[in-house]
Amino acid sequence: MQWWKDGLLVRIRVSPEGLALALVYALACWAARKLSLDQFFLPAGVRVAALLLCPPRLWPYLLIGEYAYFAHLRIPLISKYNLTWVILASVFLMPAVMLIVRLHRKLLARTTIVGVISIAICAALVISLLNLGISYLLWEPLREASFITNVLRYALGDFTGILILAPLALLWIRRAEEQWMPRSVTAVAGALGAMLVIGLQATPVPASITAPGSLQLLLILPIPAIALTCLLGWRGAAIGVAAMNMILGLSTPSDHPASFDQATFATQQAMTIASIALLLLGARITHFQNQHRLREEDGRAALQLARNSHLASEMDLRERAAHLRQLGDGMDLSLNEMVNWLHAQGHHAVADSLRHTSEVHSRLFRAQASMIYPAALERLGLYVALQAGGVREAWGNTHRVNQPWLMGDPCALSPGLQLAAYRSIVEAISILLGNESGQLTVRARCGRLGTQQGILLVAATLNPRQRLSQATMAMVTDQLTGRVLAYRGTIQCRSNRARIHLIETVGTPHTESRPVREAHRDSSLGPIVPPSRT
To answer: With contact defined as beta carbons under 8 Å apart, do 485 and 306 qualify?
Structure first.
């Protein structure tokens, strides 16, 4: 019991930031109250939005701002409603909403829009029951009115206010996660302009007279909000629902805050249901949009990994081909020295025979080395590699492959795409040579359409009536699909030909390993009412 003698040490640190927040919150509630009716109550939305925007460590300052707002609003009413009502009807509202928001933190983390709607429903019901319950207990004339009717009116007004401001607060919280494109901003501006025009046409003048058909015109309000939801998902729903309910609330004929309009109240009920549906629909649209975007990103990553894998294999072959060329250069040097020595010794016939033999075998050796990796492709492009490398000599030795028909500039394509095209056409011709008879032809055409560029390769039999066998088509598809899909290409085997189409995006940076970059850097490539919310 020592603490009973010494007392308790209480340290309170007051933050200027918190005091400023309390002042801003009180002013926001006061300003929102000026625009509100009992059936359209914006301070309820300010309360929930502030709790969503501020971390729990700042909630005590929001409580101070709430009490300051109620002090300004309700202390002048003590003589009318007594001090007990002023205190009891003011002290419990914000703590109740704080508890509701706190209990929804896990639901907000899982499904944000559903969490906000649940908070709006719970907060509207709890606050309306607290307000009216305390008023019915302390104020005798109010007991003659229908409790349920007033609860529904208050609850709908609170719920509408929360639906206007809470999703917008959520939109602000997640501003860093959402990218606003110029097209999205234009769509929002157009939808808001259309809703404003509808609201101005539907607003009765003077306010005490309901213009014929004005409420029917307000039923058109959800159409721009629906369009925004379809375009932008939950972001469009948040903006559309806020604008739709705000215009409907401000167009309500009213003379004082406690006034009530039955026709507008019925329209508000329909708009409330539509608002909930739009928010849920927007959340699902955003969910599926995110899934689609993730699948696209995964697909692009998989394609890039496949390209890097193929390029890594090509770099290994490149190193092997370079090593073979070095060996060939060494052998040629040794043989030339031997030929020169034989000439010096007078063995001219043997020297000439050795020179001829070494030249033939050197040419064949270098042709085979170029078959392993087309070094000419890096310097001169795909078409030169097909016409002047070892592959052309191998095709010529079969006497079955005609002169390639080549169009366009392959040097505009990336080196990786050129290598993929080279391997694809070489393998396709090899399969046709081994499984089909008759003469073969090779065609290639490079081109560009918009932001896409690529190459079309055709390996076909010269006779148009000679159809490729099913075994050949299956072999071509099985062996070439992996490489072709890495470049978002297609393979079509029809009639007498196999068509291979490889494409890439113009200006897309190619993520390559260091050896690949080094290899390509030189390439060319509201009756009796309770005290009206006061």
So the answer is: yes
